Amino acid sequence: MREVIIIGSGPAGFTAAIYAARAELTPLLFASQVSMGGELMNTTDVENFPGFPEGIQGPDLMQKMQEQAERFGTEVVYDDISEVDFTGEIKRLTDTNGTVHEARSVIFATGSAYRKLGVEGEERLSGHGVSWCATCDGFFFRDKTIAVVGGGDSAMEEATFLTRFAKKVYVIHRRDSLKASKIMQQRAFDNEKIEFIWNSEVAEIHGESSADRLTLRNTVDGTESELPIEGLFVAVGNDPRTHLVHGKLDLTDEGTIAVEGRSSQTSASGVFAAGDVIDPSYRQAVTAAASGTVAALDAERYLAALDGAAQPEAAAVAG
Ligand SMILES: Cc1cc2nc3c(=O)[nH]c(=O)nc-3n(C[C@H](O)[C@H](O)[C@H](O)COP(=O)(O)OP(=O)(O)OC[C@H]3O[C@@H](n4cnc5c(N)ncnc54)[C@H](O)[C@@H]3O)c2cc1C
Fold it and tell me: Could you tell me one molecular function GO term of this UniProt entry (predicted)?
């Protein structure tokens, strides 16, 4: 049986592993079969992670985090957890081969997935002009013409934020009115750099080495048109990866795993959660990493408290 099992290999999971391993809890980390390394594997330059003044490629950063976690004794398994049982004091996690792994504590760091458009060119040009995060990538689009897809609060926030850098921001929305709150809408309407393209969806993203043109389809009459751009931000929603814990852990109204205050304590004793799966607001590599630290420290204290509670009895027996 393990002291701690970590599910997820993004910045939250690996940072939790570094702390847990250095506390000699010899963590077992499930890194996933197909998407090991988390969201940063899908990007190129990361310029806002402290300690890398020249920036670092997303996959290189994740490789370094993994090496650091392994250096202190983390065991990494390239498999997914497909089922969890948090009911007893011993937690039981089943992998995709059906093997059951037991642990005294679990750190759940499965991240969240930005919704994709599912159109031709999107995967290929991800990190090459196509982005899901204005905070992360807006800086790369100084004086460029870019487009934002979406009609909710986050799309308006991204579009307004991007006008700090871009010379022009198109907002492409499939309807003729927005879902965003009135105040966010007004802020975008008032911004001279923003132009709305209504009743339209992106049908294809073009570009050789970087996105340079969109095919738009009119959602009313189906006609197609071309829009030259230098960047595209997709802001059509985000889904925390919580399907494993539905009905097992409390969730928030935003769909993230609920934790107590600033801690990582979930609604199940001995189960801690960290990173984007608990975060509806910030969703950055450094905030996920910090949250992984909190989870490892919480797990360590939880285990120490269990051991402390067990010791007086053991002492009494020995005496
Ligand atoms: C294109 C892109 C660019 C970005 N650029 C930046 C940037 O420049 N700077 C920045 O700070 N942030 C950036 N971000 C945001 C950043 O990547 C996330 O905030 C961060 O990765 C969240 O870390 P996490 O550990 O919580 O989750 P993730 O990174 O999402 O990692 C979770 C991992 O858990 C795995 N997992 C899920 N379920 C299971 C399971 N059942 N079993 C095993 N494994 C499982 C997933 O497959 C995934 O590998 C970017 C995001 C994207 C999408």
Answer: thioredoxin-disulfide reductase (NADPH) activity
Q: Average pLDDT, whole number, for the chain? A: 94
- Residue whose Cα lies nearest atom 49 of ligand 1: it is 38
Pairing label, strands 231-234, 130-131: parallel
At the top level of CATH, which class does the domain 2-114+238-318 belong to? Answer: alpha beta
Ligand 1 mutation target, pool 18, 29, 40, most atoms within 8 A of CB: 40
pTM given for the model: 0.88
Matching CATH number, 130-234, of 3.40.50.1820, 3.40.190.80, 3.50.50.60, 2.130.10.10 = 3.50.50.60
* Catalytic residue flag (residue 133): yes
Decide: residue 100, CB within 10 A, 0-12 exposed, 13-18 middle, 19+ buried.
Answer: exposed
pLDDT value, residue 273 = 98
| 155-173 residue pLDDT tens | 999 999 999 999 999 999 9
- Catalytic annotation present for 239: no
Three-state DSSP state, 147: strand
CA 259 to ligand 1 center in whole angstroms: 19
Please tell me the predicted confidence (pLDDT) of residue 33: 86
Catalytic residue chosen out of the listed positions 80, 137, 276, 298: 137
Can you give the residue ranges of every domain in the chain?
2-114+238-318, 130-234
**Residue 181 burial (CB count, 10 A):** 12
